[in-house]
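Q: TetR family transcriptional regulator, please. Structure only.
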Amino acid sequence: MNGFERRRAQKKKDILEAALVLFMEYGVQKPSIAEIAQKAGVSQVTIYNYFESKHNLAHEVFLYYLDKMSEEFKEILLSELDFPEKVKRLIFRKKEAAQEMHEDLYLYIMREYTTSPGHLREIFQEKTLPNLFSLFNQGKEQGYVDPNLSNEAILFFMHALYEYLQREEVYSNVLPMTEDIMKLIFYGIAGKRE
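A: Structure for TetR family transcriptional regulator:
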């Protein structure tokens, strides 16, 4: 990548980061292109040159956010931490993300997730599931996950959850339960056992 391409990629990332920060705090509707441009240190014209419209920018922020969350998950997974600590960090990160996110942005993300699931499905199939299997296999090896629990059963459960979360009456009410859902995924109904 030459210098021009690097600067262009950095400028696009700066715009996405600025928009994400504003969307997290105020939702998608409230921040104007002018406010996003000011926060990113670019002109409004630059934003339109890169994204054409606020709707396209919001969609790109959605994809950027998903990729960012996927990378954070992978960093935790590849760390030297033991299984319980990795699970704690994943649960804490989910709770933290849910608390940081403006409800309007969350609803926008879930609408995008259900109406154009291509990128999300790709991340889920190609990154999230293999990473979860790796995490659960590590938990089995360390004695924290039942070694008789098949990856097929885990896959069935994750797909059922994935499909259920695509329903508007579900995703519009799930944000306050994010931490509980993560605990159910990792510890089940019986809860954490020492």
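A: Brief note, in case it's useful. The chain has ten helices and no strands.
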